[in-house]
Design brief:
This protein has about 270 residues and is α/β, with parallel strands linked by helices. It contains nine helices and eight strands. β5, α8 and β6 form a beta-alpha-beta unit. α1 runs parallel beside α4 and α8 packs parallel to α9. This is SAM-dependent methyltransferase.
């Protein structure tokens, strides 16, 4: 594909919402193939084959459009770790234009779906970890994880004080019912597992939710202390009375963006 053709296509994609989820996944696969077909003129390759059809691919039995996109992205190796990448800096200008136009960068995908990638294995792991007790998610954003958990048969409640919208800097689409409610709602659902996904960096709400929670099982998707999720107080509360009880072996994260899906008990 020539750069001229790619640029013309980019001009036609002025709004990421013009692409359906299936079209976005197909475009990710197309651009990945184009990047892999054009070797880097010097140095080692910056991009590697996607997860799709490889040993790290996962079967999606409930319908997870984010996973369809992620599994088709090129992968990259960074500091001895590997993962899907949306850093298209070494691709030709036409590919970068199409990435921007379609919202295939991490910020665009995160606002469209979620800031942490839920793999099919992650949802199955949450189901096994929570068991019959159900889940309450605080700070659910557009409810993408809640939507997948409900589709998997997990009894899920979801709350967020801010509705998903184009003006919301974190979640622009609503995928399922998310009730209005802040971190204090965690106190009402001690019979459920508490789920926190990518809490805002240096924001106190995750610590308040964990402090208010009266149950004994936390499921947390995010970075560790000193990273870009939650605040220092959250990790102080976590370390003072909680012990890690497990982690999803199937969790996938963007290269260069550490993220783990872990379970904690007290």
């Amino acid at each position: 594909m020539t750069e001229e053709v790619m640029t013309t296509a980019a001009e036609e994609l002025s709004d990421a919402d013009e692409l359906s989820d299936a079209e976005l996944a197909a475009l990710a696969a197309e651009l990945c193939a184009a990047v892999l077909a054009r070797p880097r003129p010097f140095g080692p390759p910056w991009a590697h084959p996607p997860l799709a059809a490889g040993p790290a691919d996962q079967i999606d039995s409930i319908g997870n459009p984010y996973w369809r996109v992620v599994r088709n992205l090129p992968t990259q190796i960074w500091d001895d770790s590997a993962g899907p990448t949306t850093m298209w800096l070494h691709a030709d200008a036409g590919i970068r234009d199409r990435v921007r136009a379609a919202g295939l960068d991490r910020d665009g995908l995160s606002r469209r779906y979620s800031w942490s990638i839920p793999s099919p294995g992650d949802i199955a792991w949450i189901a096994a970890t929570a068991g019959e007790r159900g889940v309450v998610e605080i700070g659910a954003g557009g409810g993408y994880w809640a939507w997948l958990m409900r589709a998997a048969g997990i009894d899920t409640l979801a709350y967020d004080p801010f509705a998903a919208s184009e003006l919301n800097g974190y979640a622009k689409r609503a995928y399922t019912a998310v009730e209005p409610g802040d971190d204090s709602v965690a106190a009402l659902h001690g019979d459920r597992a508490l789920f926190l996904c990518w809490p805002n960096n240096d924001d106190a709400w995750a610590a308040r939710a964990l402090t208010a929670y009266r149950g004994d099982l936390l499921i947390y998707a995010g970075q560790e202390a000193g990273g870009c999720t939650a605040d220092d107080r959250f990790f102080e509360v976590l370390e003072s009375g909680w012990e890690q009880a497990g982690a999803s072996a199937d969790h996938v994260t963007y290269v260069g963006v550490p993220c783990r899906l872990t379970a904690w008990r007290r």
